[in-house]
Known about the structure:
By secondary structure, the protein is an alpha+beta fold. About 25% of the residues lie in helices and about 10% in strands. It has helices at about 1-10, 70-80, and strands at about 35, 55-60. It is elongated. It starts with a helix and ends in a 7-residue tail after the last helix.
Amino acid sequence: xxxxxxxxxxxxxxxxxxxxGLNPRSFDGRGNYSFGVTEQLIFPEIDYDKVTTIxxxxxxxxxxxxxxxxxxxxxSAFGFPFRTS
Length: 85
C-alpha cells in the first residue's frame, strides 16, 4: 500500500496531462478520500503495447481520521496535491 501511494503521488499523478491538483471536496464526511483516474497508462509499469483497452480506476484512501478536516490534514502531510481555489 505504501509503495502504491508513493508511486501514485510521485510518478503517476504528475504524468496526467493538464493536471491541476486533486479536488479537495472529494471527502466522504468521515475523513476518507476518493478520486478517479481515466486511464491506467499513467503508471509506468504498464506496457503500452500490451494494452488492448484503456481503463480507468477509482481510488479510495481510507483513513482513521474522525472528519474531513483531519483527513485532509493527514493526506496533505503525505504530499497529496490538492487544488487550491
